[in-house]
Amino acid sequence: LTERTNLAGVRHILLVLSGKGGVGKSTLSTELALALRNAGKRVGILDVDLCGPSIPRMLRVQDSAVHQCDSGWVPVFVGQDKAIALMSIGFLLERPDDAVVWRGPKKNALIKQFVTDVAWGDLDFLIVDTPPGTSDEHISTVEALRPHQLLGAILVTTPQ
């Protein structure tokens, strides 16, 4: 039941994917969130790029901390207007540059926890920034989000 309630207020979910690294998924996720916010939408970003969580740095909130509430983790709110909610493993590391060296089951459990245990509240869009490639993290993310309305996916590619 928790799975439904924490995403119940999210109207659309967008996955940002690519077949390789370095194509700009995190940049696109960040810019899309800012553009939607500027259009008056309530936006969240779920950063499931566990080995390279760059969005906290891009939004200049890398020193923020995640807190607990009755319904789970409270995401970090970005900007003076606090209009973008962000959850990332970057907030859970002791130092922002710490490496995450985890096997599949631990990564999958954290992704499921990010989906079920973050108190997103009411959002028009939840943008999910994924790691490069097509790995366990992608399968876990899609499995965890399956019960919810997916608006779709954005596939980031490069000409080469």
UniProtKB/TrEMBL annotation:
Coiled coil: none annotated. One of its GO terms (molecular function) is 4 iron, 4 sulfur cluster binding. Keywords: 4Fe-4S, ATP-binding, Iron, Iron-sulfur, Metal-binding, Nucleotide-binding. GO terms for cellular component: cytosol. Gene3D superfamilies: P-loop containing nucleotide triphosphate hydrolases (3.40.50.300). GO terms for biological process: iron-sulfur cluster assembly. InterPro entries: Mrp-like_CS (IPR000808), Mrp/NBP35_ATP-bd (IPR019591), P-loop_NTPase (IPR027417), YlxH/NBP35 (IPR033756). This is NUBP2 factor. It comes from Helopsaltes ochotensis. The lineage of its organism: Eukaryota, Metazoa, Chordata, Craniata, Vertebrata.
